[in-house]
Amino acid sequence: MESLQQLGLLGLFIGTFLAATFIPFSSDALFVGILAATKDPLGCLVVGTLGNWLGGITSYLLGRLAKWEWVEKAFRIKPETLEKQKERIDKYGIWMALLSWIPGIGDVITIALGFYKTPWVGTFILLLVGKAARFAVWMYLFSGIFA
User: Fold this and answer.
1) Shortest CA distance to 134 belongs to which of 17, 48, 54?
2) What is the SS3 string spanning 59-92?
3) Are 72 and 33 in contact, with CB atoms under 8 Å apart?
4) CB neighbours of residue 117 within 10 Å
5) What is the C-alpha to C-alpha distance for residues 48 and 66, in angstroms, rounded to an integer?
6) CA 61 to chain CA mean position, Å
7) Does residue 143 surpass a pLDDT of 80?
8) Contact 93/58 with Cβ under 8 angstroms?
9) Residues 31-63: b if buried by 16+ CB within 10 A, e if exposed
10) Each residue of 100-136: pLDDT tens digit?
């Protein structure tokens, strides 16, 4: 039974890591499913947060490697659009990392934070806070049900 629990937590780590990159699927549903299977709220919180956070860091670093010319050409984005997005990042800065958990746009925000080169230490800390808070809410809502 313990090895099945460990396997579930490993799957949670891998899944939440991938979900925080550009692979579109719900880490929330995965989290709740593994929580139900393992009945280990704290383990799921720690492992899910760590996987999702490291995936977010990966997305940030990929964004940081991108060049303006590549983005304009590959995604057919006008320079004016990139400038407008940069103004938004400049206005809200690393605080946008708190929104990295939002399905659909969170990964784009994280990549943009890297692309526009926000300070990495503060960005990583706020990525961690946002992702931990999201899983803590799911843990709170569902851990009593699966106990």
Assistant:
1) 48
2) HHHHHHHCCHHHHHHHHCCCHHHHHHHHHHHHHH
3) no
4) 13
5) 27
6) 13
7) no
8) no
9) bbbbbebbebbebbbbbbbbbbbbbbbbbbeeb
10) 988 888 988 999 999 999 999 999 999 999 999 999 9
* Cα(40)–Cα(35) distance, integer angstroms: 6
In the 8-state DSSP scheme, what is residue 40? -
**Tens digit of pLDDT for each residue in 94-109?**
999 999 988 888 988 9
Q: What are φ and ψ of residue 43, in 5° steps?
A: -60, -45
Q: Specify burial of residue 23 (Cβ count, 10 A radius: 0-12, 13-18, 19+).
A: exposed
